[in-house]
Amino acid sequence: MQIYWTKINKIIDETPEVKTYLLDCPKDFTWEEGSHTHFALEGFNAGDKPNRGLIRHMSISTLPHENSIGITTRIREQCSEFKTVLRNLGVGDLRFLDRR
Ligand SMILES: Cc1cc2nc3c(=O)[nH]c(=O)nc-3n(C[C@H](O)[C@H](O)[C@H](O)COP(=O)(O)OP(=O)(O)OC[C@H]3O[C@@H](n4cnc5c(N)ncnc54)[C@H](O)[C@@H]3O)c2cc1C
Q: With 0-12 CB in 10 A as exposed, 13-18 as middle and 19+ as buried, what is 8?
């Protein structure tokens, strides 16, 4: 498993419930068009076992030459632990895991 920690550099409000998070692209992180990744929030590996409540599959919506990792998701008012934490993050805050 390869873990890359990175930060949110921009949040785009697509609609009131749908947001796109643009993440800084870590050095050596590469992907192909249409790839997905495991996306994890800070604290997912704080215990003995990974906290699955803080990890979700997400498709990468940007292209490799854009040099930014884009993740688009819907966050409803009543939402999971993962999306509750995500909703409260701002630019500079996010942590990210890839384990392809
Ligand atoms: C290959 C792949 C690619 C994917 N790409 C994307 C992507 O690009 N974007 C994307 O958004 N998703 C993507 N998914 C799905 C993603 O992994 C999540 O399953 C999805 O976003 C739902 O996450 P959640 O945390 O809302 O889900 P869950 O925890 O499964 O919750 C499902 C729904 O139940 C309700 N719910 C859950 N917990 C609570 C709670 N505590 N209180 C009230 N209601 C609750 C909410 O309405 C919630 O939306 C992908 C999945 C795969 C397998």
A: buried
